[in-house]
Amino acid sequence: MAAGVTRVSDVVVPTKFSPYVQQLTQQKSKLIRSGALAADPVLSANLAGGGLTFNEPSFKDLDDDAENVSTDDPAQLSTPNKIGTATEIQVRLSRNNSWASMDLTADLVGEDPMDAISNRVADYWVRRQQLAFVATINGVFADNAAAPSGTDTHTQNDMTHDISGGAFSDGVTNFSAEGFIDATTTMGDSMEELTLVMMHSVVYSRALKNNLIDFIPDAINPAAASIATFLGRTVVVDDGMPNAGGVFD
After folding, report:
1. Mean pLDDT across the stretch 95-101?
2. 16 burial class (0-12, 13-18, 19+ CB within 10 angstroms)?
3. pTM score of the predicted model
């Protein structure tokens, strides 16, 4: 028998594994969950059929043509006007994904990975839907920023108000109430129809520091957290909002 004291290096320390737990992403996808986006029955009907694109014809509103002055002269007849039309092209976004796990994996692990997968698929698609929506809106603004060509007659950059500048300048390129109001002015007298504002947490923190955020109690559950508002608009904070190089959209 060897002489001495038994030490840790002399024994086999068993490894004990705890049961599997589920890690959850910190992505909130609050834009999708806020209810700001809703299913449209017309789009749903189009998607129920075939085709990669759908043409949606529409009648334009009547132009503000000057009306005729009434007279009893039978020789003066009203010249009729016509109504204009337009066509919008809708694009089907076809997306899919799949996950798999071998039966032997579940036998050896003691937990079925497919159970974890099935519990997280719905949240996965919520995150992907928000990313697709943000990418689509970025495309709309990118098209607006491009110079018109051919039959395109849009006014370049009339949908945005850019305060980013060439470099950061404190008090100039920061988020501010003045900058926000200038941005909503691009909507003209329809600015009051804007009822919800999405903010990245960095922008939201700046607004908080400047005391720009008001809080109102939830009418349904006053004991719950108050609802953040900015200039009367509901604020939804989500780090999925576009940002690059310190510039937040």
Report:
1. 94
2. exposed
3. 0.78
